[in-house]
């Protein structure tokens, strides 16, 4: 796992990469448990706005 630097020293690109990595892992976990596991990762991914979720996470973390 990547070491996390204090927020003030993290570039937007590094933050986006970390959140994108977490998104993929979390989507896999969600596919296993959401709605009783009846959707695959691909099906679940088609139901959500990946870029919107990542952008919102970046905004929340960076207080923008």
What would you say about this model in short?
The chain is mainly α. The protein has three helices and no strands.
Secondary structure: elements and pairs:
Layout: H1 12-33, H2 41-46, H3 50-62
What does this structure look like?
The longest helix is centred in the middle third of the chain and has 22 residues, at 12-33. The chain is elongated. It has helices at residues 12-33, 41-46, 50-62. The mean pLDDT is 85. It has one domain (11-62). With 64 residues, the protein is mainly α. Helix 1 packs across helix 3 (50-62). Helices cover 64% and strands 0% of the residues. The chain contains three helices and no strands.
Profile the largest sheet.
none
- For the secondary structure, the number of strands is 0
Count structural domains: 1
Oligomer: single chain
Q: Find the structural class using helix and strand composition.
A: mainly alpha
What is the overall shape? elongated
Give the low-confidence spans: none
Helix content: 55-70%
Euclidean distance between termini CA atoms: 26 Å
- Summarize model confidence as the mean pLDDT: 85
SSE pattern:
HHH
* Annotation field: number of helices: 3
Cα-based radius of gyration, to the nearest Å: 14 Å
Strand content: under 5%
């Amino acid at each position: 796992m990547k070491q996390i630097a204090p927020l003030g020293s993290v570039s937007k690109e590094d933050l986006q990469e970390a959140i994108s990595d977490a998104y993929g892992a979390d989507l896999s976990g969600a596919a296993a448990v959401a709605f009783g596991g009846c959707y695959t990762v691909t099906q679940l991914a088609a139901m959500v706005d990946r870029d919107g979720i990542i952008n919102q996470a970046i905004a929340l973390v960076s207080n923008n």
